[in-house]
Specification:
The chain is mostly beta strands. The protein is about 5% helix and about 45% strand. It is globular.
Length: about 375
Amino acid sequence: MTCFGTRCATLSAVPALLTPFLLGGLSWNPDPGSEQGTANAQVAFQDLFNSTTRDGVACYRIPALVTAPNGDLIAAIDERVPSCADLRGNRDINIVARRSDDGGRTWSEIETVSDFPDGESASDPSMIVDEVTGEIFLFYNFMDLDEAPDVYFLHVMRSADNGRTWSEPQDITSQITKPDWRGDFKFITSGRGIQTRSGTLLHTLVNLDNGLHLFASEDHGASWFLIDTPVTPGNESKVVELGDGSWMINSRVNGAGMRYVHTSTDRGRSWQSRPAPELVDPGCNGSIIRYRAMDGESTTDLLIFSNAASEDSRTKLTVRLSYDQGRTWAVSRLVYEGGSAYSSMTVLADGDIGLFFEKDGYKENVFVRFPLEWVTDGADGEDPGS
């Protein structure tokens, strides 16, 4: 049985491409039409968005990637038109996306999700998949540079058809922030949030003046609420639910040269924080996801983390595996040596990992897929220390 979020599939339902890994085999076929590969095969980058994709677009930035309930992939991103500047300095940022129905081998044309008039911009997409209802939530940060400059509003859209169409945006700023935060530098973290085993939808919100927070929904997105416990230090962050039901936040911290980790055993009412010097970081958004696979009585339950693994530069995009719920990171694999910044990961329908990241100074935004076996260089996914 392979589980992605709250979804599980029996081994017999998993395509043959994944079966060797789940059974402990050592082979990987990176392309069903090619000759059988090995764990040493080089992964292939697919450039989904670059400044030449559409006329007049300065750059694409801030990737977000999820697997829809039907197995399709959705890759969303900022389309920054006049310049590559962030929200406060850019009068025209749209949210656009591409979809894949074959595990990332081919992709749709670019589809516009959100496009406001000049002077109004949407930025930093992130998504949560509700495995219970089948809906996908897409969040972004909004600013009207003429009517309310430097005031951040927080929006969400919904899709009930695996990302083919989206609802009108809903402003949830008043639900997940405080009135006295109006002028604060606040934003929903790009990338993705999660759904816990109890069905709670959970995401991270940064207020650079008042700390990192979580916000959540207990009614499948009908309403949202702030968990009013600031977590510090923390900039752009990701949250995961661990095997024992506790929550863990993995945080960007500017100037530290490393990540910070925060854990809560009481649903976010209190937190224990520690530096993570083993996760070097230049101050950049990363990605962390939980991966679970079951074959009979054998269970794989690990965390997968990606970031620019350098203390002082956005380079060396690296993927790491933890077999002990994030206490240590036993395995790592360099994905790209050169310029690499924000990244977003998802588990594909066949159990492989999909990774979407900014490459070469934001010139490209590429997708790559690989099995866990590629990260472990041919191991079978078991803890090498066991």
